Amino acid sequence: TCGSPWASSCPPKTISRNGVDYPPSFVLEAATAFCDEEAALSSSNSEMQELCASEGSDSSTVAIPTSMPDGYYGYTVPVPRSPEDPLSTLLFAPLDNLTVDTAEL
Q: What are the average pLDDT values for consecutive 10-residue runs of the chain, which has 105 residues?
């Protein structure tokens, strides 16, 4: 689809129960600011605009992306820890030395 993954949550809505509005106004203000920021980001993202422009065209001409840039929607390619990494040597090294009784598996 042609839109932000937050489209169903934006703009934020309030409900009222027993005369009390939920969410509180400070949460609503933060959510509104987030939605405005997301709208600005998706309209300035050239890849999103390109996909949106092709959405209304003939389905045989729509190019489905085969790769995503690193950092797309906040996702990055996972990188394994190196043996020199302090967490690897301090925390996980004892796990590397555990033996597995494969006969009992």
A: 64 87 89 84 61 53 73 82 80 81 80
